[in-house]
Amino acid sequence: MTSRFAFTRRAAIALGGALMLAGGPALAQETVKIGLILPMTGPFASTGRQIEAAAKLYIAEKGATVAGKKVELIVKDDTGTPDVTRRIAQELLVNDKVSFLAGFGLTPLAFAVAPLATQSKTPMIVMAAATSSITEQSPFIVRTSFTLPQVTIGIADWAAKNGVKKAMTLVSDYGPGIDAEKAFKDRLTAAGGEVTGEVRIPLRNPDFAPFLQRVSDAKPDALFVFVPSGVGSQFMKQFVERGLDKSGVRLIATGDVTDDDIVDSMGDVALGTITTHHYSANHNSPENKAFVAAFTKAANVRPNFMAVGGWDGMHLIYEALKKTNGATDGTALVEAMKGMSWTSPRGPISIDAKTRDIVQNVYVRKIEKVDGQLYNVEFSTFEAVPDPVKAGK
Ligand code: PHB
């Protein structure tokens, strides 16, 4: 008996090996691989940490099997450097044979990989980067983060309605900053306001001081700011050092500047700052309360909007696989994603079938103290906002 069993087992192993070598469909398709490329080190490491934790939490909560396939997440650190992102994407496609590329912590990193997604017909889920034109770089890109114009027009509307006639703008000098600068100016101008000064600051090693001196001298009604997630503390520190918090110039921004990872460490000087964005850890819904509790337990920090982009990106992948019954044809998966809608921790969201971009609520928020900690507390909502740039085309 023993020897027969041993023979059977050996035979099964040999057969399995032969099928694997031949790329036999039965065994090769048991696992669906997701290549998650993120800045895990360097100045944007907080984005990587947040998205990785959310993706792992999603798998832990929903299970590592979907539509009969085992899900394998392969996380790679691109350090926030486009050449590295491209090389990693190539390796994931060729060596690991991933069915999805995901992550993309900054706009240039998404641009670097878009041609590879097109060539290999692989769905590319943008969980972080937020320049409007990213989704136009490949028909295989689907986005679960946001766009800067989408979250900026709300703060321009709020400013116009709240006595801001003259504003200055300060943005990081690359795709999302330029998008934010234009959206803010167009919208405020249309409402009868005026942008009296525009400054772009380098993305890396920014020094805000010289510009803040100009703002202090010019005394506009408001200063509108966009800097990417992780940089906001540095900005706020220099804003206060220049005495601008006491100058009567109102600080308004997109929620990138006051993201949940850093807002509490900004201190009481940040109290009262008005921003617009699509996610706050303080969002009042049962889905978000469950998400924040589970994320905080797993990662020991508050989730920020990057985490939500990662969580919903995983949801999109899982639901698309359910729709294709586990088939991994890239074109079929992207088709399955188009028009999908669900309730995210951030509120109701959907994927626009035409643009493959996200449609979502944008909230107006004020920094307040809740149970002794600073939060972006939502007080009004623009519902189901598409990317206004593509909606206008
Ligand atoms: C981007 O590079 O597209 C980006 C990164 C971080 C943000 C917003 C946009 O907070």
Automatic annotation (TrEMBL):
Region forming the signal peptide: 1-28
Start and end residues of each Leucine-binding protein domain: 31-368
Family of this protein: Belongs to the leucine-binding protein family.
Source organism (scientific name): Bosea caraganae
Protein's UniProt keywords contain Metal-binding: no
Protein name, as recorded: ABC transporter substrate-binding protein
Annotated PANTHER family: LEUCINE-SPECIFIC-BINDING PROTEIN (PTHR30483), PERIPLASMIC BINDING PROTEIN OF ABC TRANSPORTER FOR NATURAL AMINO ACIDS (PTHR30483:SF6)
Keyword flag Lipoprotein: no
SUPFAM superfamilies: Periplasmic binding protein-like I (SSF53822)
Keywords for the protein's UniProt record, in alphabetical order: Amino-acid transport, Signal, Transport
Top-level lineage group: Bacteria
BP GO terms, sorted: amino acid transport
